[in-house]
């Protein structure tokens, strides 16, 4: 699995004019599922998301996790993260999981994250989404499992 994690002051997802997910301070996480990914990869990613120290402590050092600050997590499925861009100018998606498998793992991640964290919002799998965010820092990380 691949994830792009952004520390945000706020973020939201709109589908067909309706806001379906929103958070204040926390993490916006775009998730890309590849064909070989499984629930173990999802569990590893969830653990990292909940514990990665990207928020500032009283001394201004990145020493706190989203769990420590009781921040929000906005999980958004993003198929294009699985793209192969090494050849030519058109991305290839042969490494991406089939939609049924990707949706199952995305739903699994959402459910498991909600079991462990109070504030979890989501996008909608395979929807045309409009994402708004205010990146705080900017702080952005690429995670691979």
Summarize the topology.
Layout: E1 2-15, E2 18-23, E3 26-32, H1 39-51, E4 55-56, E5 62-64, H2 66-69, E6 72-77, H3 99-116, E7 120-122, E8 130-144
Parallel strand pairs: 3-6, 6-7
Antiparallel strand pairs: 1-2, 1-3, 1-8, 4-5
Structure summarized in a few sentences:
This protein is of the alpha/beta class and 145 residues long. The protein contains 3 helices and 8 strands; from the N terminus they run βββαββαβαββ.
Description:
This protein is of the alpha/beta class and 145 residues long. It has a single domain (2-137), classed as D-tyrosyl-tRNA(Tyr) deacylase (D-tyrosyl-trna(Tyr) Deacylase, Chain: A, 3-Layer(bba) Sandwich), CATH 3.50.80.10. It is built from three helices and eight strands, in the order E-E-E-H-E-E-H-E-H-E-E. The strands form two sheets. Strands 1, 2, 3, 6, 7 and 8 form a six-stranded mixed sheet that branches. A two-stranded antiparallel ribbon has the order 4-5. Helix 3 (99-116) links the parallel strand 6 and strand 7. Helix 1 (39-51) packs across helix 3 (99-116). The longest helix has 18 residues, at 99-116. It is globular, with a radius of gyration of 15 Å. The mean pLDDT is 97.
